[in-house]
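_Full entry_
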Amino acid sequence: MNQNKKLSALLPVGVFLALYLGFGILFEYVLHTPGGFYDVQAVVVFLIALLVAVIQDRAHSFEEKISIMARGVSDSNIILMCLVFLAAGAFSGAVEAAGGAESTVALFLTILPDKIAVGGLFLIACFISLSMGSSCATIAALASFAVAVSEATGFSMALCLAAVVGGAMFGDNLSVISDTTIAAVRTQGCEMRDKFRMNFWIVLPAAVLTFVLLIVMTPSASTQLQIGEYNLLKVLPYLVVLAGALIGVNVFVVLLAGTVLSLVVGIASGAFAWTESFNIAFSGISAMYDITVISIVVACIGALVRENGGIDALIGFIRRRMRSERSAQLGIGALVMGVDVATANNTIAIVMSGPIAKEISAEYGISPKRTASLLDIFAAAMQGILPYGAQLLYAVSGAAAAGYAISSLDIIPYLYYPIFMAISAVLFILVQKKGK
């Protein structure tokens, strides 16, 4: 490996950030294109960055560069990450088509009293996102319910939508089948269960505080909510996946089992014909293509950057500004949040920051499970409050579909959970004893 620590080797990363953020701001706030920030396709910009990396490296022939990239992509972590992404997509598509989300919402609204309707929205979003592993899918499924709760109770629609977004980020951060959790665990080389346990105790105070605050802020709901019917059989796939993953069954196997069970439930309940099973699973898998391709391209860029000393140079730059284990952990948090601001995608932020965080952790004796937890928490906290992030855009579009004009900036003041989550992580770093 080239031992020269050259910050110039990070040029491909800089090109990506400049193009992605620059055009995103241009489209969102200047040209006001229909898709705004998301008219800038990350895959295309990453390919441009990869081209820059290939051109910049003059020390190797083209064949040698291909070999370097192949070694980066062939890493077992990258292969498993991509396979789990596809399996998670199949499960999400199958369970949604079977009506699992609607039944779960109806079940929770039946159990929870009207007085905690908004807090209940938060809990429902926590459960569904924890089971489904996707914040965007959770928000897309629950945005209409948030609108219905707001209409029935008279509470602020922005508050109701924020409760859903907060709960969605809870599962996005914690779920064992979330792409962010998978990326954090695989880049740090720790066990899924270990990361979950540490992560859970860090964010639990934030979740409890958010739930209590939502109840305190909404004490006077008096209108009876209209609750749909639920089918316990349709909730079963969520429970199977959640239980199987938590007890340590291989996540890939759990997802495949959950997909099959969801398809069986959907066929048995008449939600769809058995002949549609393949298309339903494929629709979920295709939704994960972008992040799968991005993971492969990022691995190629990372391999070239590392070969040319860029990673070593960046680690040295960050290390010089760190004086202790605590400052190293805060630095990891700042790093992944900064990348998330530029990319508006917490999974990409973790994939890009993970190798650097791993090197820093090894230097300062930080355990892999703690690093994985901090990466996921800080990335989720930032992603949850980005006005141009997919999560808030999904929430806004859900309100628009119901005929209400609301902006992401209206929701941000009520996003208690992402903010409390970041505060809780910082306190965890500052309070925890060295080496514990």
